[in-house]
């Protein structure tokens, strides 16, 4: 069955995209369509802050783009290791509750200075709000802007024209839901209810449900394998 994956394709030089590969191994044909475009901003300010580690108690990442922005700044200055700057990175795979509990414990023990949070122009306020409510200081800096991919509507129209209504559509972010859903509704028309909607995680699941659509499956973990397992199960 055909599955539409609303995400940026993996760089072709590094081998087959894992989402396509995992779906093919389960008898389904996946197609990737880029949904978002990104523009990096405030990189000079970011560089300045990265090289003032004494001002911050840690560095929080919640998106790959923020990691990429930091990497760009470090490579520009020929210093690759965040650890060498004295910052304690908290990765994007760490849940909000776990991050919060760790930071509260650290703050009570050491009275840590503000945490530094490089983020995008579209971000959820769950973590910042939770930190503020628990007295953990946080300094944010927008380091990339998120916008709709300029060819999104054209690419969606071409897909539906050439391949028809997919059996399943997978969303990978609330922003993807925001930018795609109106076009998907229009192109699917009365067949919208036949599509099995899949989410990469609970945040995206909530965004789909908020639009009044039924979420057929959500990946247990945000990986290609777990998403393919969930989609294959719902398409049985």
Automatic annotation (TrEMBL):
All copies of domain Tetrapyrrole biosynthesis uroporphyrinogen III synthase, residue ranges: 18-227
Molecular functions (GO terms): uroporphyrinogen-III synthase activity
Xref: SUPFAM superfamilies: HemD-like
Record InterPro entries: 4pyrrol_syn_uPrphyn_synt_sf, 4pyrrol_synth_uPrphyn_synth, UROS/Hem4
GO biological process, one term: uroporphyrinogen III biosynthetic process
UniProt cross-references to Gene3D superfamilies, sorted A to Z: 3.40.50.10090
Pfam family, any one: HEM4
Gene Ontology cellular component terms for the protein in this record: cytosol
Record-annotated membrane-spanning stretches: none
Protein name: Tetrapyrrole biosynthesis uroporphyrinogen III synthase domain-containing protein
Protein species of origin: Astatotilapia calliptera
Lineage of the organism: Eukaryota, Metazoa, Chordata, Craniata, Vertebrata
Gene: UROS
């Amino acid at each position: 069955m055909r599955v539409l994956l609303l995400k940026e394709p993996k760089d072709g030089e590094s081998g087959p995209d894992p989402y396509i590969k995992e779906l093919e191994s389960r008898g389904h044909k996946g197609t990737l369509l880029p949904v978002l475009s990104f523009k990096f901003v405030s990189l000079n300010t970011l560089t300045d802050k990265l090289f003032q580690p004494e001002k911050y108690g840690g560095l929080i990442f919640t998106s790959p783009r923020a990691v990429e922005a930091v990497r760009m700044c470090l490579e520009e200055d020929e210093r690759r290791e965040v650890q060498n700057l004295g910052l304690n990175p908290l990765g994007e795979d760490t849940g909000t509750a776990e991050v919060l509990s760790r930071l509260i414990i650290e703050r009570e023990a050491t009275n840590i200075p503000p945490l530094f949070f490089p983020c995008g122009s579209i971000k959820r306020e769950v973590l910042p709000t939770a930190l503020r409510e628990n007295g953990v200081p946080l300094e944010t800096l927008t380091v990339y802007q998120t916008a709709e991919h300029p060819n999104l509507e054209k690419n969606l129209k071409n897909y539906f024209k050439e391949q028809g209504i997919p059996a399943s559509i997978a969303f990978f972010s609330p922003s993807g839901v925001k930018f795609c859903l109106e076009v998907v509704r229009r192109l699917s028309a009365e067949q919208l209810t036949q599509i099995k909607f899949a989410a990469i995680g609970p945040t995206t699941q909530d965004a789909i449900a908020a639009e009044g659509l039924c979420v057929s499956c959500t990946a247990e973990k945000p990986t290609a394998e777990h998403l393919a397992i969930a989609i294959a199960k719902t398409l049985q």
